């Protein structure tokens, strides 16, 4: 390779912004800018430079081939033969410049330009230029890419057949999916975005769409009309799926599955309804609606712990396994003269929550909690000196002392820290009994019972 050309190529790799001959000559003492200028004005074309550089410096194997076009703005080059008024997707307007179709190779870290073609009005189309670039990559550079990548402008039957004949695969985006029968090719479209071509012999196939349900990840999906905006709606036919209908692209942020999950997470991590709505840019009604949907899934008893209890093991150490702490935590709904108490019980040794109920600080509410605790086979209770405990518990099975209720008091501190409506000396409070019970019940079910709600 001639020395000026070698220096020019090295400078192109070195410089990121300035690539003039004068700047290159200043960086390299062995060549002048006049010599570089004469070389570029000579018989060396851009295609020859790229071809010589690629075969000298790089080994293009594997990786990905990218076919794309761009517009180089030349507003003052009116005499440039290749320049014309063309549409630029980047600037979203018509520019006077040169439209170039590029072929780039990348392995995910390094991007190497392989070739380019200039599109001119009245000449070869961009499809033909893309075909020419792919033919050059295969026949001249001997590329064997993992995939060929291009946008929704280029998918055509001729281009896809050419890639199939080369034994390559491709990934692209479709403007719309049209059912066609193509020989020797099977095309699977996943979510209408990804196309994969696999070689088959004389097997005519039809283009199909495979959509997965975002909730259960099953592909048992059928079309279910369109929305008022014209967006395609899909129906999940899986019987165990929690939500049957869904869209692939939501216009309302409150309908996105990830936003719905964030609503629950923020509500259980010291965020109020309006805090959540401001942070996620949704309405307060959306937050309330999503929280209310969780109410049927809540349980008042730790059934997961109840199923793990082994009767044989309980008989061996029944005294320790049957000890529980019971206590009540004060809160209110709308005003302080309308209290709402949380009654709950935990295992004295492990701290696992056994059951909980809501109500006033009265005997009938305690009796509801006591009924929920019967399956656990408890033999001893540690509580404070509230009268409901002494009236309904056997004195031999009851110890009234704050000394033995430290773990359950620590549970109260966690609840008041993690749930904003339970914090003291704030203006945050529940406006309805339903939302009060739902948020606290969600916290207990998710973090105490270990349930996925």
Tell me what you see in this structure.
By secondary structure, this protein is α/β, with parallel strands linked by helices. It has four domains: 1-44; 45-206, Transposase Inhibitor Protein From Tn5, Chain A, domain 1; 252-293, no CATH class; 298-448, 2-Layer Sandwich (Nucleotidyltransferase, domain 5). It is built from 16 helices and 21 strands. Strands 1, 2, 3, 4, 5 and 6 form a six-stranded mixed β-sheet that branches. The protein is elongated. The model is unreliable at 177-207 and 313-321 (pLDDT under 50).
Strand content: 15-25%
Question: Based on helices, strands and strand pairing, what is the structural class?
Answer: alpha/beta
Q: What is the quaternary state of this protein?
A: single chain
| CATH architectural arrangement of the largest domain | Alpha-Beta Complex
Tell the overall outline: elongated
CATH superfamily of the largest domain: Transposase Inhibitor Protein From Tn5, Chain A, domain 1
How many whole angstroms does the radius of gyration measure? 35 Å
Query: What is the CATH topology classification name of the largest domain?
Result: Transposase Inhibitor Protein From Tn5, Chain A, domain 1
């Amino acid at each position: 390779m001639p020395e000026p050309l070698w220096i020019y190529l090295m400078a192109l790799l070195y410089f990121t912004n300035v690539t003039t001959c004068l700047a290159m000559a200043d960086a390299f003492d062995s060549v002048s800018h006049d010599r570089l200028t004469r070389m570029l004005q000579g018989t060396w074309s851009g295609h020859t430079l790229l071809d010589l550089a690629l075969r000298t410096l790089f080994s293009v194997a594997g990786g990905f081939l990218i076919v794309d076009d761009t517009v180089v703005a030349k507003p003052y080059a009116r005499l440039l033969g290749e320049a014309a008024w063309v549409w630029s997707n980047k600037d979203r307007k018509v520019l006077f410049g040169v439209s170039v179709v590029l072929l780039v190779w990348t392995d995910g870290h390094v991007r190497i330009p392989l070739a380019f073609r200039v599109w001119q009005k009245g000449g070869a189309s961009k499809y033909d230029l893309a075909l020419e670039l792919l033919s050059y990559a295969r026949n001249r550079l001997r590329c064997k890419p993992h995939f060929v990548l291009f946008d929704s402008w280029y998918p055509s039957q001729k281009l896809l057949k050419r890639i199939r004949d080369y034994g390559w695969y491709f990934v692209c985006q479709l403007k719309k999916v049209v059912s066609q029968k193509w020989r020797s090719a099977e095309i699977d479209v996943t979510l209408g975005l990804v196309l994969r071509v696999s070689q088959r012999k004389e097997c005519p196939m039809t283009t199909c769409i495979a959509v997965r349900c975002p909730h259960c990840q099953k592909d048992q999906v059928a079309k279910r009309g369109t929305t008022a905006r014209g967006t395609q709606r899909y129906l999940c036919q899986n019987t165990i799926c929690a939500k049957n209908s869904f869209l692939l692209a939501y216009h309302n942020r409150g309908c996105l599955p990830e936003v719905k999950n964030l609503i629950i997470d923020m509500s259980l991590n010291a965020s109020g309804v309006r805090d959540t709505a401001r942070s996620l840019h949704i309405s307060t009604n959306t937050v309330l609606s999503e929280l209310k949907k969780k109410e049927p899934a809540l349980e008042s008893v730790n059934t997961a712990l109840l199923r793990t209890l082994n009767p044989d093991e309980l008989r061996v150490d029944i005294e320790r396994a049957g000890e529980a702490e019971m206590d009540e935590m004060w809160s209110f709904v709308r005003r302080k003269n309308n209290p709402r108490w949380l009654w709950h019980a935990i295992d004295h040794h492990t701290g696992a929550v056994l059951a909980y109920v809501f109500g006033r600080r009265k005997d009938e509410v305690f009796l509801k909690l006591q009924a929920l605790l019967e399956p656990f086979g408890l033999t001893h209770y540690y509580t404070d000196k509230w009268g409901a405990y002494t009236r309904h518990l056997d004195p031999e099975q009851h110890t009234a002392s704050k000394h033995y209720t430290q773990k359950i008091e620590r549970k109260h501190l966690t609840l008041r820290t993690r749930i904003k409506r339970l914090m003291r000396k704030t203006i945050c409070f529940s406006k309805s009994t339903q939302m009060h019970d739902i948020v606290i019940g969600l916290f207990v079910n998710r973090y105490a019972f270990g349930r996925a709600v």
